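Recall the central idea of this unit: under ordinary conditions, the amino acid sequence of a chain determines the structure it adopts. In this exercise we apply that idea directly, starting from the sequence alone.
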Amino acid sequence: MPPQSSNAPIVARNLVRTFGSGERLIRAVDGVDLEVAAGEVFGFLGPNGAGKSTTVRMLTTLLRPTSGSATVAGFDIVSEADSVRRSIGVALQDAAIDPLMTGMELLKLQAVLYGIARGEQHQRAGDLLERVGLSAAADRRVGTYSGGMRRRLDLALALIHEPTVLFLDEPTTGLDPMSRLALWDEIRRLNNDGTTVLLTTQYLEEADQLADRVAIIDNGRIVRDGRPDELKSEVGAPTLLITVAEHATSAAETVLAQFGESRPTAEGTLGVGLRDGAGEVSAVVRALDALGINVEHLELRAPSLDDVFAEATGHRLEGAS
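Accordingly, the structure predicted from this sequence is:
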């Protein structure tokens, strides 16, 4: 269960954002309730278009809610928007960064915008560049940075004024595995220092690795929330995935139905939640073999966040198998 403190750094109540009107009305965010505790990494998990980024844009005052309310760092996102902006750090997917400026120049400019004293600007920028592993590239133009370097610079820019609440909108999208792991480590360090982090992601492993709690959003609504281990334990049964010849699919589905409920899977694969656990795998294979159905591929998976998402929505996250 989410914390129930009105002093939480992020609180949203029945947050709604619509676009268009009449028959073309789109409810991008449809009654979101959130409460993020101080010092928590909160994962906002869902596919593209689910409403993650729209929610973050409202919480960071970049988009006005259609209805509902929210406070961030103790300030109302509509009536006290300036105070919210001074209290938070934000690293968005589509942040505009001047490619002709150097990393050091951008950080010092950000420091000026936040009113940091001239005598502190260079020191603070240098410390942050070192923290995110960009000291050697401090005087290079940002246009020469790799994708991973730019995302680390985004993070440094969001931290220049030492915010207590940090919003990261899909920070590792498009990064190679090594850059992703490096950014994960930095997020963990920030959190260990007491920073509250709201992280949006469509990566199951990212949410599982980083988040103390997750909220799963689909079609603008939160469909599950809680600690990752608790959500996975609620799914309970492991998932058996099998592949059979196309002509045998219908018969195989009938067999699997005897062992548990069907689970959404990638096209061409059948899935079942084994109600009696992993020990039933051999019985499934025997039942299929008795009907002359040859199993081309078999895989048993412990409950995952993808299973939680599938159970809640009836489909799996994009790219999840």
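Residues 255 and 287 are 7 Å apart (CA to CA).
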